[in-house]
Structure formats: C-alpha cells, structure tokens
Write a structure and sequence with these properties.
α3 crosses α5 and α5 packs parallel to α6. The chain starts with 7 loop residues before the first strand and ends with a helix. The chain is built from 10 helices and 9 strands.
C-alpha cells in the first residue's frame, strides 16, 4: 500500500481516455493506491492547445509507490495504464458496478472539468471499501459524477442536432462534406458514431478546436484541431435551407424560452438558420399583437 507521502501520476492518451482510466483504476485499486496519491494527466496530441491541468500541480513529485512487494518508480514523473497493467499484482477485492453506472462514469470522464478522473477514481476507491455505496444515489461524489455525465450527454445531443455539413472538396478535388462545431466538452469521439451511421454513404469531416474527425466511408480517421476559418463557407444549398426554414416557421407555436433551452445562444453563431430567428421572432410578436388587437373579446378572456 502506498505510503502517505508517495505520489503517482497516471498519463492517459487523451482528455476522454476512459478505456485508459478504467485500465489504470483496476490496477491501482488492486495496489491499494489511495485517491489522494494518484494524479491524472492526459496528453492529447491532436489538440491544438494543451488543457490546463494546474489543479494537480504537485502531481509529478518524485518518489516510489510500493504495494504487494511491487515498487513503482515515480521518478519518471508518470506511468501509463499499459505499464501499470504489466505489474505483477496479487489478487485484490474486485469492484462490481452495473452497466448503467459504467456508462455514467464513461460520460463523466468526457467532461472538461480537470478533476473528473480524480472524482471518478475516488468514488471507485470508496466503493471498493463499502460495496453498499453502489446503491446510494444521494452520495455526494456520485451526485457530482452524475452532474458531469448529464452535461456531457446533453452536449452530445446538441452536437447531433446542431452540426451543419457544407459541401467541399479534399486536397485531391474529391467531394466531401465538412462541418464546424465547438463542443463544450470532450465529446467528439463519443458523438462520431452517430454521424458514421447516419451518413455512412458520404465522405464527411467535422472540425473542432480540440480535434477533427474524417469519415472516408470505411473508417473514422482523427486529425488535429482546427479553426472556424478552415471550414467551408455558405453555398447555394444553404440558401434553399434558409428559405425552407423561414417558410415553415409557425409564429403561433413560438415559445421563446423553450427555444432557448433547446437551442442555447452559444450555438447560434455556427447555425445558418439563426440569422433569421431574431426577425422571425419579432414578426411573430407583431402578428400576435395584431391578432389580439383585432379580437378584443379574446384578449379579455
């Protein structure tokens, strides 16, 4: 079991590396590594900017962690999940969680909160010591994990709804469709399967500040983050879409607060139809006022 002053840094492959986290956590729990001595880092080679991890600025402290006769040299500053898996460890108390809970942990690890892996590992550590915790929906750590997971699920839903592809060409002049999206959390990998299934018969790419993904009709390929300037501009088909959107807008069914809940303003700059919304809303208010003025009896009711 690690001594109180020992410190171990686990280096994950990406900000959303749940597989690596799960692999490392399984070994660390068997080693008896307490949450306060385990620090989590991630190295995303695809990102254009490194994520701020200063919350655990002391995570790279040198030292050694010993457990079950196995010594981990922390002088190298970090250890990967694969390296942890190669350690010879004795049998430990396994942690059993249900599939829905595993899904919640997976989503929580996609959140942009820098303490997400620490939080999830702490809950697993406590669960190992107290299995009944698995059924405690009011546990403070679990509630925080669920809050992170809920935000990630919502962001994945928004990405599915608000990605807008535009026709473009690749470097060889072949047609493809390209979209620009700015996710709040690390959800591109988690959300890409939806687009792969829905648009399996066309070549497409989604550019984001963190990373980019290309579907070549055979497999997903990952690339570095991009900027909005690298995405294609409007085309003639977009004008047709705007005309259709305007013609189907029903002022009688307008609920502004509900619309803002489902389409928050931070997405508006990347949605072509939002350039029409202010005018359509103003027109709906005017038409509603005219109708009420023309029917005073209905206004009194």
């Amino acid at each position: 079991m690690p001594a109180e002053n020992d410190s171990l840094t686990v280096m994950l492959e990406a900000p959303d590396d749940f597989a690596g986290f799960r692999q490392a956590a399984r070994v660390l729990l068997a080693l008896g590594a307490a949450p306060e001595v385990v620090h989590w880092r991630w190295s995303d080679e695809l990102a254009t900017q490194a994520e701020d991890g200063d919350l655990f600025a002391d995570a790279a402290a040198a030292g050694a962690v010993a457990a079950n006769g196995v010594t981990i040299d922390a002088a190298a500053r970090a250890i990967t999940p694969d390296a942890l898996d190669r350690l010879a460890i004795g049998p430990g108390q396994p942690v059993h969680i249900r599939k829905p809970q595993l899904a919640v942990l997976r989503n929580a690890c996609c959140h942009r909160n820098p303490g997400r892996f620490m939080l999830c590992y702490r809950w697993l550590w406590r669960l190992q010591a107290m299995p009944s915790l698995a059924g405690d929906a009011l546990d403070a750590d679990w509630r925080d994990i669920e809050r992170l997971a809920h935000a990630v699920r919502r962001e994945i839903h928004k990405m599915h709804a608000f990605v807008r592809f535009r026709p473009a060409q690749d470097e060889n002049g072949n047609p493809m469709h390209v979209a620009w999206f700015e996710p709040e959390h690390h959800i591109v990998r988690a959300a890409s399967g939806f687009f792969m299934e829905r648009f399996s018969n066309m070549r497409w790419a989604i550019l984001t500040p963190d990373c980019s993904v290309l579907w070549d009709q055979e497999c997903l390929q990952w690339g570095p983050g991009a900027s909005a300037a690298q995405a294609p501009g409007p085309d003639a088909g977009e004008a047709l879409w705007l005309a259709y959107y305007q013609s189907t807008f029903n002022p009688a069914r307008l609920k502004e607060q509900a619309m803002l809940r489902e389409m928050p303003r931070r997405y508006w700059k990347n949605l072509p139809e939002t350039q029409l919304i202010s005018g359509l809303v103003a027109g709906a208010r005017s038409r509603t006022g005219d109708m009420l003025a023309a029917q005073p009896g209905a206004q009194r009711a």
